[in-house]
Amino acid sequence: MIEITATDAARAFRDLLDRVERTGESFRITRHGRAIAELSPTGAGSVGALQEFLQQHHERYPEPDDTWWGDISWVRERRSPIEDPWDR
Question: Of 77, 79, 81, 84, which is most buried with the most CB atoms under 10 A?
């Protein structure tokens, strides 16, 4: 995810929207060095956001908890193309 200041996002908002729409890029908008919002594609972009979330948690928690397999099975039944970061 690309980080951009709120000022720069305001100046280039139309261009940011075009990039999100055309290439699927995502942006984290910051103010005074603190993240305040994210701009990302809807629909298919949500899988990318979930992948990023899973990867971040995999780094913090190298082993899945007891409910992981039930949760991942629930997602897979809905045909969401999510990779298992624990690769099991």
Answer: 84
